[in-house]
Design a protein that fits this description.
Two copies of one chain form a homodimer.
Chain A: H1 5-12, H2 15-23, H3 28-31, H4 42-55, H5 57-67, H6 81-85, H7 90-110, E1 121-124, E2 128-131, H8 132-156, H9 170-173
Antiparallel strand pairs in A: 1-2
Chain lengths: 181, 181
């Protein structure tokens, strides 16, 4: 399946409401527990998504359109969410993610990208040449990676509680292959 | 973390709205594509959750309370969703899942389970003796397994489209460890 701008936007637009439905007002035993040292809980994951919205996705789209391959993207700080989350509640983060995602998508729609624009090229600091279309597809897949991660992190909390069923539950076999961008 | 009835119900109650926010009215290119032969798409997964609601979770809770270990649970038909989904739209399945889940949770709350009830034992046809508490924890983890799966199945559709970013995206490394109960 090729990246398709309308299908990309359709999915990107649903992620904030999906996380909101899953996480808002859920007991903190679900949302503030992680998988162990140097891993993320649901709160951290929403903070990471906000941080990506501010520093990664639309900024990189604009870098491609403005300077092409001539300058590499700013590297993304995978722990940058600490600045986004300090002193905030999960409800505040969910509100903020919905707002910044909505702004990003307004900006993306406003670019009126044509299919030839999607083939424009940029330079990733580690991966080298990438296209705008690949960047947009990665934005979607990054959302899904973190929805996949948050499901796994919460299931992890009942790892012992499920007893012998553990071996039947796919999410319990998932080897923490988490995220990046 | 021990299984806790209030925390279990809090999460179980959110799954229908989470899937609704993610899937309703999404283009069918996301919801009707799977990961290859004998795998499920998002539509199949919602059908499977409905089938579990009718035949698996509360029926097994009641079996434990009524007959204990003396009779094994009915085996769960992992492909039973075909009967649930025939001729229906995804929107109809999402409505139906919300309704049957809500009925299950009303019934569960109505049992007024005490902590000593949670240690009552039943017999799984393959796993042997299990407790009511383990069954309830598994119900939650099963929801999360399928949220994890639906994220992976949709990300799979952009597997090629993300280009070189694929290796950074955890969900693309996930080895289809799916489901069961």
């Amino acid at each position: 399946m090729q990246q398709n701008l309308q299908e990309t936007i359709a999915l990107l637009g649903r992620t904030p409401a999906t996380l909101d439905a899953l996480l808002r007002d859920l007991p903190e035993s679900w949302t503030f527990r992680n998988e162990g040292e140097n891993t993320w809980n649901a709160f951290d994951i929403v903070g990471h998504l906000i941080h990506g919205e501010r520093t990664d996705w639309m900024p990189r789209v604009k870098t491609i359109l403005q300077v092409g391959e001539s300058r590499a993207f700013e590297p993304f700080d995978r722990w940058g969410q600490e600045r986004e989350t300090k002193g905030k509640s999960l409800a505040e983060l969910l509100d903020e993610f919905a707002r910044v995602r909505s702004e990003s998508l307004s900006e993306l729609r406003g670019l009126n990208l044509r299919s030839e624009d999607l083939e424009r090229r940029g330079r990733h600091p580690a991966l080298g040449v990438v296209t705008l279309s690949q960047l947009l597809a990665t934005w979607v897949a990054h959302d899904l990676t973190h929805l996949h991660q948050v499901s796994r992190v919460m299931a992890h909390q009942y790892r012992e509680a499920v007893g012998p069923w553990s071996k039947y539950l796919g999410v319990m076999q998932c080897a923490g292959h988490s995220s990046a961008s």
